[in-house]
Specification:
By secondary structure, this protein is of the alpha/beta class. It has helices at residues 4-9, 13-16, 30-46, 48-54, 56-70, 83-93, 110-123, 140-146, 170-178, 198-201, 227-230, 267-283, 285-303, 331-340, 354-359, 376-387; strands at residues 18-19, 77-80, 101-105, 126-130, 151-157, 182-186, 205-209, 221-225, 243-247, 250-253, 309-311, 321-326, 343-344, 346-349, 364-369. Strand 9 (243-247) and strand 10 (250-253) form a beta hairpin. The structure holds pyridoxal-5'-phosphate (PLP).
Length: 390
Amino acid sequence: MLDLEHLRRDTPGCLERVFLDSAGSSLPPQPVLATVIGHLRREAQVGGYVAAAERADDLAAVRVSLARLIGASPGQIALMDSATRAWSEFVSAIGFGSGDRILISQVEYASNAITALHRARATGATVEAVPSDPKGRIDLEALDRMLDERVRLVSLVHVPTNGGLINPIREVVELAHRHGALVLLDACQSVGQIPIDVSMLGVDALSTTGRKWLRAPRGTGFLYVREELVRSIEPSALDLHSAEWTAPGEYRPAPDATRFELFECDVAARLGLGAAAEYLLGIGIDYAAGAIADRAERMRSDLSDLRGVTLRDLGTDRSGIVTFTVDGSDPHEVREQLARKQITVTVSGRSSTLLDMQARGLDGVVRASAHYFVSDSDIDRFLTAVADLE
Ligand SMILES: *Cc1c(COP(=O)(O)O)cnc(C)c1O
């Protein structure tokens, strides 16, 4: 049986402060920390190659754990150093031509949008944003109207970085596939907080990061690519791990998603990513999802009672990200005042999700994201501090 005290004892950082930034960079649990530090120590004793060889089985198991977490098979997972790397390596592997269209979301994350614009500039493709509907979700009717045979890729952000909404996936996949477009799901803010099953959802690829809701070390992330698709696309970077030099003028890419990986990597961080996935599987994604949703709903409901506080979350289906502004206070000033009381929140600024923030006339929002290890009294402290803002 899970109890909060146990989960909190496993999370040294949460005892010293009210930590509400799991959407930014969460606190890794003790087993993740021990795995990473233990491996760094071992590398210092025997060298990186021997240390990695000793953990070969555990390294192979990282992909197995991540696959279990999202309903994939291990061969469909490529370990990456960030979500942005995963997203951009996948998109770069799609050979766009002049006149091809890339559709992004109105809540697209800046790094994805920049990569899409970069690819478009290099290939003559175009980038267009699918608007959000009045509730803030991706506008399915607009998407339907925009789709044609020139659309090669639809980038769908599952949960935006700047607000609590959850976008529908299946409906987007059905529409896109009807027109032969691929769907790349940015699941950065959902893997680890919301159950995801790629085999049910039918997305062609998914990118995500380790350090947010998964509570893995920094510098980790992964890419999922559908099996038949991965064999038909070649990543822009290949090496002796992702491909084999078979004859003087020949090479053969790996048959599975590992064709997206490079040989060199932070082995300790990868083992830490595996430990984080196992930790979550041990807790159960349903438990995590329920606990996160409860905390977010409580924060929303109590924040909305505070005078001068405006909740900024859209959507009908809500995630663990709570965003708000305070009348007359710059979001950065709110963050600093809370930080002085050992309460960690962050600011989601205009340029991170430019289209959406512009459309809503927002420069920045305060973002509070509570993981399952956040206690009721942590939330009390946070709400009192917001009520007491000067
Ligand atoms: C954080 C975030 C990213 C980028 O993740 P990195 O690991 O920093 O590359 C992409 N999309 C969304 C929605 C995010 O919140």
